[in-house]
Write a structure and sequence with these properties.
There is one protein chain. Helix 3 (30-51) packs parallel to helix 5 (97-118) and helix 3 packs antiparallel against helix 6 (138-161). The radius of gyration is 16 Å and the shape is globular. With 162 residues, it is mainly alpha-helical. It has helices at residues 4-9, 17-20, 30-51, 64-76, 97-118, 138-161; strands at 128-130, 134-136. It has a two-stranded antiparallel sheet with strand order 1-2.
Length: 162
């Protein structure tokens, strides 16, 4: 896996809290973006860890919408326009930058621990449903987190250049 912490946090390194809080009206701040990424990583890591003792699973069928989402995310490395974050990963209106950074680093560590613990043994028979992409394996979730982090790292850099 690539260095998610470096990808997401390096543009913010050493910047004052005010930089973590700047965003156009109606858009998330860099602190909120980092918190959103932490929530997504934490949720998938926690869910996979909770399922580690489950019997082998079979992937459910995918809908057309999920197939299109996978083409965008895994084929193009992008997200379809107009997607909103699931409520469980929506950050609060005000997020402290240092708290978001600490949460993100902890979530990355939790995700990396799950990967170490479950791969390669559960590579093909353990799934967690993504709200837009359907059932994903641990490795597919890893790819999702990379694409997701790159997407939001671009937003962070745009906010800081702003």
């Amino acid at each position: 896996m690539i260095d998610l912490a470096g990808l997401v946090l390096s543009p913010l390194a050493g910047l004052p809290e005010a930089s973590w809080q700047q965003a156009p009206p109606g858009k998330w701040t860099p602190a909120q973006i980092v918190e959103h990424l932490a929530l997504a990583l934490e949720m998938s890591a926690t869910t996979f860890a909770a399922r580690r003792a489950k019997e082998p699973m079979a992937r459910r069928g995918t809908t057309l919408r999920e197939k299109v989402g996978k083409v965008f995310a895994f084929g193009l490395g992008r997200f379809p326009p107009g997607l909103k974050a699931p409520e469980r990963t929506t950050p609060p209106p005000r997020v402290d930058g240092h708290a978001a950074e600490a949460h993100f680093r902890a979530a990355v560590a939790a995700w990396e621990a799950v990967e170490r613990d479950l791969l390669p043994a559960r590579r093909h028979d353990l799934f967690v449903k993504h709200p837009r992409l359907g059932d994903l394996t641990l490795e597919e979730w890893g790819r999702f987190h990379i694409v997701h982090s790159r997407h939001h790292a671009r937003q962070i850099r745009a906010r800081l250049a702003g």
